[in-house]
Amino acid sequence: MLSVVVPCYNEQDNISNFAFELNKTLSTAGIDHEIVFVNDGSSDNSWNIMQRLASSSLNITAVNLSRNFGKEGAIFAGLEIAKGDCVAVMDSDFQHPIETLVEMYRLWQDGVQIVDGVKSDRGQESKAHNVMVKLFYDSLAKMSDMQLYNSSDFKLVDRAVVDALNQMPEKLTFFRGLSQWVGFRSEKIYFEVKERKAGKSKFSFKSLAKFAINSVTSFTSVPLHIVTVMSLVTFIFSIIMGVDTYINWVTHNAFVGFSTVIFLILIIGSGIMFSLGIIGHYLAKIYEEVKGRPRYIINEVVKSNNKQD
Ligand code: UDP
Ligand code: MG
Hints:
The chain is α/β, with parallel strands linked by helices. Helices cover 50% and strands 17% of the residues. It folds into 2 domains: 2-217 and 295-302, Spore Coat Polysaccharide Biosynthesis Protein SpsA, Chain A (Alpha-Beta Complex); 222-290.
């Protein structure tokens, strides 16, 4: 059986259509399936709609989180509840094409354990956004060997992979990265990002930037070592300046103005603050992990009685 995990946050206008279309396509293709809708603390009617769907004849499980935990939390809650021999993760807004899911399933049948959905284009995103995204993935690839350019959360993974992911003890997760980190036999499949059917995107520029920084620091400690490199550069520079100042002093040619001094203090001062910021960021991550709070809290799970568990 295939489980399709669908994280939803204020998606009242998409959920029903999505369930029916998905069910239609998968049934036509003869794929036994369940849909796991995860309500990520929506403030609209999403949860009511999911509950209603869960008691219909479709094989649907509705999971209600206790509040909005973010897409990552919702995905991992769905992975815990999903019962399938393989599990797919998909957006509820039709941006991940349902036909591609069928192709992914066929690849899984051929023995691929991770079918990785890669965007063949980035849909209707702005030029500036694309440049930022490219910069982010390039630096991630340089620092951590993770090749995630144009990757997405649209994936189909084998039960063995789901079990491995569920065992990860870390609280700050990054599904795209972790599903590459775990290894296994994987293959890419390209899909075109479609227009969102209804509602609007839940990710602001700020939340994307936060997500990007967190995903870099989840996979690499290189930024911390940059601090050391920066200190070496400053040290060499200070030796050169020191020698120069000494010669000037001996030859009675010492600087007259303070400009150089002020300039140096400002540069080094910002270097130190920047470094402290990087260290602080890792410290904050350690703090979050050490607290050991769960990635999500499930409030209730609704499933109709006539379906076997
Ligand atoms: N989502 C979620 N929790 C959140 C934000 C988003 O479960 O806090 C879900 C959302 O309902 C959708 C998917 O994650 O099914 C992708 O979100 P969205 O379409 O807003 O992101 P985009 O496609 O713009 O990157
Ligand atoms: Mg979307």
